Amino acid sequence: MFAVFVAAAALVTPTGSLEPQTYSGSQYARSRAAQVRVLNAIVDYQVLTIQIGEWQWTGIPYGQRTAYADVEVPSRRVPTHVLTWQGERLSNDVMIELQPAYPHTVILCGFVTVSGNFQTVVLRDSTAGRPSMSSAQFQFVNAMSDGAAVKVEFDKKPLNGYPVLQFGASTKVIGYSPDEYEVRLLSAAGQELYKTTFRANAGTRYTAVAMGAVGQAANRAPRLFFYSF
User: Fold this and answer.
1) Is 215 exposed, middle or buried (0-12, 13-18, 19+ CB in 10 A)?
2) What percentage of the chain exceeds 70 in pLDDT?
3) Residue 108, exposed/middle/buried by CB under 10 A (0-12, 13-18, 19+)?
4) What is the DSSP secondary-structure string of 39-76?
5) Is the distance from CB of 59 to CB of 47 less than 8 angstroms?
6) Per-residue pLDDT for 26 more than 60?
7) 177-228 pLDDT per residue, tens
8) What is the DSSP letter of 115?
9) What per-residue confidence (pLDDT) applies to 15?
């Protein structure tokens, strides 16, 4: 479901969400194109331009996820790099793997200004319909820029089947009853890094991304960002 390699949308707060994306299988009929959206989780540069193959997303603030775009995939591996908002290149190419005719979310994280490099987490997104109105669903992803392993707790209970999430790991979809939950992000050793409350709405699927790094300030400190699918 995941691999570690790495349009306009509203800025997402840690307890906010984007409007759900809707699509059908017919949208992915182009044999050499993948549907791709990107999430800027690179912790040391606030606004980035991101290029994957021939497609470029301009001026993506930290924490923002874009809408889907068609990206041509001549072979399974596609070069990716980041630039400033003004177009100055900041990084070397990172090769990511995309599967033509499928939708993907590409999360970019790390410290690009320090080394000229970054990391990616690539998710092949579900094309399933919405969950039932008796359920809310979550997929949790570790995209911490410092590469730290983390734990996630809902109402002081660890994620079922995922006591620790290593960097680059994502869970399967986990179902919860629609309700308000206390959510905590912890280090692998159990130190609390972030705590918030989050209301899980009925019939909604969320991607919950752990991002940031210890020692960073404000929204780039360790925390969970929630995005409706």
Assistant:
1) exposed
2) 86
3) buried
4) EEEETT-SEEEEEETTEEEEEEETT-B---EEEE-SSS
5) yes
6) no
7) 999 999 999 999 999 999 999 999 999 999 999 999 999 999 999 999 999 9
8) H
9) 34
Strands 33-42, 103-110: pairing is: parallel
Q: In degrees to the nearest 10, what's the CA dihedral of 144, 146, 149, 152?
A: -40
pLDDT mean over 7-12 = 31
The SS3 call for residue 28 is: helix
Quote the CA–CA distance of 25 and 36 in Å, as a whole number. 14
Q: How far apart are CA 223 and CA 49, in angstroms?
A: 23
DSSP per-residue letters across 181-194: EEEEEEETT--EEE
Task: Map residue 207 onto helix, strand or coil.
Answer: strand
Residue 26 sits at φ, ψ, to 5 deg, of -65, -20
Bridge partners, 158 (sequence order): 153
How far apart are alpha carbons 91 and 118 in whole angstroms? 7
